[in-house]
Amino acid sequence: MIWKLSMTGIKSRLRDYMILFSGLAVASAIFYMFQSIATNKAFLESSNTVKMAAVIFQFGTVLLGIITVVYILYANSFLMTLRQKTYAMLMMLGAKTKKIAQIIFLETFIIGIAATFIGTLVGIGLTSLVNSLLVNQLDITVQHFSPFNVSAMIWTFVFFGILFIVTAFINAGSIVKKPILQLLKEQTMPKTLKIRPILLFLETVIGIISLGIGYYMLAHINKYQLFGIAIALVTIVLGSYLLFHAIAIFVLSILKSIDAISMKKLNNFTLSQLTFRIRDYTQILTMVAILFAMAMGAITVGLGFRSQTLDSTNKAATYDLVLNNAQKIDKTQINQLNPTVNDSYSQKEDDKTLYYNEEQFNERPLQNKDYQTQKVISYTGQDMLNDPNILENLRWYGTPEQQAKDIKLVSAEDFNQLDLPEASLELVSVSNFKESLLQIKKLVEENTANNPSLATGDGFNQTAQKYVMYQISNSLYSGFQFMGFFLGLAFLTMLASCLMFKILSSANTDKARFQMLRKIGTRPSLLKGAVRKEIGVLFLLPGILGVIHVLFGLQMFKELMSDPYHGIWIPFSIFIFLYAIYYVLTVVIYSSIVLPKENN
């Protein structure tokens, strides 16, 4: 009987449960994908630098888990608000609170597990897609990769299973503790709204100051670091709450007092509706604004990192190719690159010292790029002899065993008299590194084969090699790119679902007001317009504040990205389009509840 009642309850509110279901399915799908890629043995063993991307996906899993907890708690509280009248009716018919608790527990758990199962199936497909994109972008080969990851599946079901069990107990406890009369009348109980101008003014001032402090911390995150992030989180959340709490009511009051606005069509009704419940919406609007900023920020930064790989590599590297023991390389391969710089330096070495011919540096000065100014400085042999610190720049291009030796520049005569084997160090620059990437890759692989010591140390002993630096940066930024995009997608689904639940939770109460307007002769087109305006304001307010948060928040990435605002219109357009879809969906569902069928 309990099972039957639970399934009947789900069917009766299937439309509302589907909103929760979709958010949970997206969250579990992305959670599985992050875990699958981060723990997939075949993927991790494909390349040493890939492990950096895997760490980023683990970090994304933690962030997603935290936001999912908040989402489920909010969404379920709204869902219980919609269902509490039904539970109260069952109690009036003699159902015991223990049985009601069991029904609530089953409804919550069934929806949660079903969403996790569907989400995991979707996650398997996402994993396969993202893996293919990553493999292509990182230019790696992955053998025997399988998107089906038992470990990731277990983690997904364990995390969401525990979360749903806890939520089910919370839902059951919140319902059975309330008196039947409160359950029946809570949604229709009048809420008084006292407007105190002085208090609203103080809240507005404090809110603006709080946001100012938060934005300042984000803009100077390099100076304040973790302390700045902590302060920004507190002040931006506080500022957002106070602005919604104060300014929204203040602005609505002003609009109602202007007859040219309030007396036009059903504007007075819409403004009254918003004013009546804006205080009740303060928390959800604040949360949606923060999630909106996080979602849009994640997508913006994720897509922004796409262009950072080559940019950061170009800034850090002076030469495009470093060849140790270059005498073993076929010169034809180098000439095919059409190098703009091709400087070769003779080397001789014993157990403790690495010798160079000074005159070669006088003829072909060693170049070094300053990371801050990006200015290339040329050093002659005499410059290096006069300043030992400059001589150390040469050590950067040696093999691991050479870097441990003393470096000496000697005259051509003294160099020729050294009875030691002679080798060659060749430093090459090309006109376009990206276009020459495949040829450079082949030469780097050959160089590593000719110098086995370069193959050790996870590749990090080749950081003078621009191609290796490119691989490391590409792995890092590609991980951020995919994590940011999918986190943004998950955050968008959650914030829109929460706002939809909040709006729909009051639909049954609002239904009587719209029916009253219909009975006194209000045209259906005006009623539909009032719905669009009211819901539009509730979507627009957190959207505007969220955009402002993003525009200031991107300042914290200026140390990681050359221009965090570059191409910002692309992620903004994608996000606003998806956000608009949720707005339209909410309008359709809300209208079907509050407006009579004959008006649809």
UniProtKB/TrEMBL annotation:
It is a multi-pass membrane protein. Residues 62-171 form the ABC3 transporter permease C-terminal domain. Signal peptide: none annotated. The chain crosses the membrane at residues 17-35, 55-82, 103-130, 150-176, 197-218, 224-255, 284-305, 482-504, 535-557, 569-595. Pfam families: FtsX. It is found in: Cell membrane. Keywords: Cell membrane, Membrane, Transmembrane, Transmembrane helix, Transport. It comes from the Bacteria. Its main location: membrane. Belongs to the ABC-4 integral membrane protein family. PANTHER family: ABC TRANSPORTER PERMEASE, ABC TRANSPORTER PERMEASE-RELATED-RELATED. This is Bacitracin export permease protein BceB. It comes from Vagococcus luciliae. The lineage of its organism: Bacteria, Bacillati, Bacillota, Bacilli, Lactobacillales.
